[in-house]
Each structure stands twice: as structure tokens, then as C-alpha cells.
Amino acid sequence: MSPIVSVFKNPPDGGRGLHRDIRVRWALEEVGQSYQLRLLTFSEMRRPEYRALHPFGQMPTYEDGDLVLFESGAIVHHIAQEYPGLLPLDRNGRSRAAMWMFAALNTIEPSVSSGSIGYLQQRLHELSVLLGEKDWLDGAFSAGDLLMVTVLRGLRGADVLEENPNLHRYIERAEARPAFQRALMASSNLSRSA
Fold first, then answer.
1. CATH code, 141
2. pLDDT of residue 192
3. Peptide bond before residue 88 is cis, with ω within 30 degrees of 0
4. What would the mean pLDDT of 64-84 be, rounded to a whole number?
5. Counting runs of H as helices and runs of E as strands, what totals does the chain give?
6. Helix or strand holding residue 40 (H, E)
7. Is the pTM of this model over 0.85?
8. Domain that holds residue 47
9. CA-based angle 35:5:111, to the nearest 5?
10. I need a surface site. Which of 51, 101, 124, 152 has the fewest CB within 10 A?
């Protein structure tokens, strides 16, 4: 049976793939794992049966047999460990990919939502220097890149991102991946069917 991912029936971003469920769907597309979508409205997310899956009543959730996960980073981490394709084969590479996953969610994402432009500029400059002219953060594309790009995508068009052209190119490279395009198309289709 395919995993079930709970997503918004009417995506608040209009199907642009800016909500955190894109992370989970993109990860599943990258590893070639089929999945089903459970489409929910905001009112359905407040119901006790959904709160049993996600105690905070947010999106997304992931169900695979008797395993239920919430928090997009934890779900992507699970997918990356469960299926080949999002983590390097060597132990050190796997650990570095996990490090970038945590950096995306614990260092960069909070600076994006902090409202402090100076802090965000500093973090993006540091990330830009680390990335340099490489295609990906640490060798081949990994779950670390997937999460980092989903965090950065919300800044597209903002001056603070445009100050770092290599980060802009990094996002474009990731968005050009066929798996991302399939996940984004699913978001767009959800919006059109709503």
C-alpha cells in the first residue's frame, strides 16, 4: 500500500508549492515512491480524528501502515532513510546531508520568518559563500538540498535573495528537477480542482 500524505484541499498558496507539504511530495517523487493524497479543509484539520494524526492540527502528515508522522522535516528524513536516492551511500555523506537538513530548518528557515532583514541577509550571505559555484550543498543532490530549496523558494523576488545570485541559480536548478516539477504539478492541480 502507498503512503498517504495529508494536504490542503484548497492550498493557501494557490498551488505554487510554497506550503510545507511540497517537501514531502517532492521527496516521494525523488525516490520514485507512489503515494496517495488525503485532501483536507481547514475545518477538517481541527477535527479530533485529524488531531490524532497531528496534535497541532497542521499539514502535512504521513501515514505508512502503522507509522504516522508529522513535521515535514521528520517526514523527509524518514523518506530519505527508507528509500534510496536522497542520501549519499557513505556514512559521512549521510551525516552531512542530515546536517544540511537541520541547517535548512533550524538556521535558515527561522531567519526567513524572523522579520529581521539584517539577520536574514547575514545568514543568506553565509549560505551563499558556502555554496559558492557548486550545484549542490555537498556533492550530489540530497535531502539537505531539497529542504534548503523549499525554505529559500519563499524569498524568490525579494531583494535579500537577489543579493546572492548563486542562491537564485541554486533554486532554479532544483526546481528544474523532474521530481520537483511533478510535485509542483500536483500542487497546481489541487488548486485548480478546488
1. 1.20.1050.10
2. 54
3. no
4. 97
5. 11, 4
6. strand 36-40
7. yes
8. 4-84+178-193
9. 125
10. 51
Question: In terms of domains, do 187 and 150 share one?
Answer: no
Give the 3-state secondary structure of residue 4.
strand
Q: Given a cut of 50, is residue 129 above it in pLDDT? A: yes
Phi-psi region of 65 (alpha: psi -120 to 50; beta: other; left: phi over 0): left
Question: Which residue matches cell numbers 480542482?
Answer: 193
Cell numbers standing for residue 158: 525579494
Q: Are strands 61-64 and 67-70 parallel, antiparallel or unpaired?
A: antiparallel
Residues 102 and 151 both lie in one domain: yes
User: The domain that contains 24 carries what CATH number?
Assistant: 3.40.30.10
- Domains of the chain: total: 2
